[in-house]
Design goal:
SH3 type barrels; 7 helices; Pdz3 Domain; alpha+beta; 34% strand; seven-stranded mixed sheet; five-stranded mixed sheet; 267 residues
Length: 267
Amino acid sequence: MNLVINQSLAKFILAIAIIALLAKIASLPLYFLLPHFGINKSKEYTINIYHKYNLSRAFGIIPTKTKKEPAPKKPVYQLTNLKLKAIYSEGKDGVIAIEEKGNLIFLATGETFKGYKLIEVKPDRAIFEKDGKHYELKLEEQNLKGKYIQPTSSSLNPDEVKFAVLKRDIKKFKKNFNEIWKNISIQEQIDPKTKKLAGFKVTHVNKNSIFGKIGLKEGDIIIGANNQKFKSYSDVLKLYNNIDKYNSIKISIIRNNQKKDLEYEIY
């Protein structure tokens, strides 16, 4: 009985083994044909055709670039009650000489004269600002007119007078030209023959001011500095602009038809 059962079991196991072998043999072609890797989930892509696609390029249309409109410039008004006599500029900064009713006034950038603030100095003009408006004063042409006092031959032997000046006073007046013209007034002097600048006449001086104390008097004609005659306004402006760099200055004047030198030691 046991032998019969064992033979039957052996036949069943053998049949199963044969079926498994046949299945394995049948799967061999698939082993060589199918890929030897797992399956990965592909990435998802989102395409926004409305934002990515340029319709104008599709039809050959080239969009024109819009130009920004420049900010409108402020209108510039002309000053007619003043004359611009000279300019000494360093970039947008500088010093100018203006004339009003025969009197000369020197202004530096940032200073104000009768409400007009000097904001910019150009090679041929000065720009002022008042009440939010810009005003322009152009350099006048060289048709110079004026009075001139010819020095006599006695001016060949000048007198020299020496004074002491504090450097702090010079710096004070250099920073604020308006303080100068409160104490002294000058007028240009023109040579009637050459029509060129010959000097500056002192028409008023406050005797109690520094200008009175350093020897200037009404009627004096300032003709030069440091043994150099003033040939143009630029010579005067250069002297003003660099005055705090000197240890001494010699001012040449004509007084009572005689030449005098006023020498100043700066401490």
